[in-house]
Recover the amino acids of this structure.
């Protein structure tokens, strides 16, 4: 049993690689290092440096593989509005290339990294898998198309698949791996605090208990374990749901994140306050009951523990 992890040199991918190895499952990584880091790939893990558009390299990486965890792609929703063609090329065309190579090599199992971006700005208090997708960016649209590709390829071939819709992935399960995204809240706060600067809260007039937006934050190590559970189920021939939300069902406000950062770091700061950013939803929280039922999914970290692991792994934290 060997699984290929596309994007395995990225923040989430590197955690998935470690979770597979901890579970006794061999892995191979393919990543073009456009956003990943070679040092995130553990020693001894075969690594193919290539983009998924390179069909020959993908077929090489699939040698001896029984399944794929597909995480590679362009993930910046805001930037995708400015670079739609690049987004579709990396997230849709590249996935077609991967599925073609899988069919040629007879690889029939795939776990797909989808996104909460497929929901856009939901009106429900708690999002479920039955919530109608309404993506609001090329990124979210590309992830929804990825789910459609799996559905249609499964109808035409013996493809076994599931898609995991992520919400806000945070923290670290290994001090050597950190989230370097310039757009995510936790690394933004860590970076500002290490520079002696004060983080900002954008929007304090949301219809939430403390006036700041509430989002669903899940720890990356919990997320990684869900991939292993999904892979094992597909390998065993279990029919999984086409999509699963990996969400806590509760949510955490931005102000609660700031309070956790103050407690964890010991840095006494009062965050600045600025107007809401356009399109920033007041509340996005997901029900994770289906994933709990089929993948033994659950959040095992408190908000303080989430921030503490992110802070410990941050490269300039002291």
């Amino acid at each position: 049993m060997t699984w290929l992890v596309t994007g395995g040199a990225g923040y989430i991918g590197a955690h998935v690689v470690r979770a597979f190895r901890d579970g006794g499952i061999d892995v191979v990584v393919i990543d073009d290092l456009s956003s990943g880091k070679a040092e995130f790939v553990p020693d001894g893990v075969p690594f193919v440096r290539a983009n998924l558009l390179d069909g020959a390299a993908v077929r090489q990486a699939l040698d001896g593989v029984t399944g794929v965890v597909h995480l590679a792609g362009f993930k910046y929703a805001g930037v995708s509005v400015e670079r739609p063609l690049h987004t579709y090329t990396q997230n849709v065309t590249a996935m077609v290339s991967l599925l073609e190579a899988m069919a040629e090599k007879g690889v029939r199992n795939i776990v797909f990294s989808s996104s909460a971006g497929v929901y856009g700005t939901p009106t429900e208090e708690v999002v479920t898998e039955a919530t109608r997708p309404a993506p609001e960016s090329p990124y979210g649209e590309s992830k929804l198309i990825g789910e459609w590709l799996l559905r249609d390829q499964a109808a035409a071939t013996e493809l076994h698949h599931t898609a995991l819709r992520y919400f806000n992935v945070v923290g670290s399960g290994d001090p050597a791996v950190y989230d370097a995204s310039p757009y995510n809240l936790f690394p933004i706060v860590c970076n500002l605090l290490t520079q002696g600067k004060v983080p900002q809260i954008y929007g304090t007039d949301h219809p939430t208990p403390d006036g700041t937006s509430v989002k669903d934050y899940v720890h990356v190590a919990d997320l990684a374990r869900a991939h292993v559970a999904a892979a094992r189920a597909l390998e065993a021939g279990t029919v999984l749901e086409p999509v699963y939300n990996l969400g806590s069902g509760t949510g955490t406000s931005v102000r609660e994140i700031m309070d956790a950062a103050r407690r964890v770091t010991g840095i006494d700061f009062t965050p600045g306050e600025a107007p809401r950013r356009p399109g920033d939803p007041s509340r996005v929280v997901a029900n994770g009951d289906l994933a709990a039922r089929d993948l033994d999914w659950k959040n095992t970290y408190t908000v303080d523990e989430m921030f503490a692991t992110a802070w410990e792994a941050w490269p300039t934290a002291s």
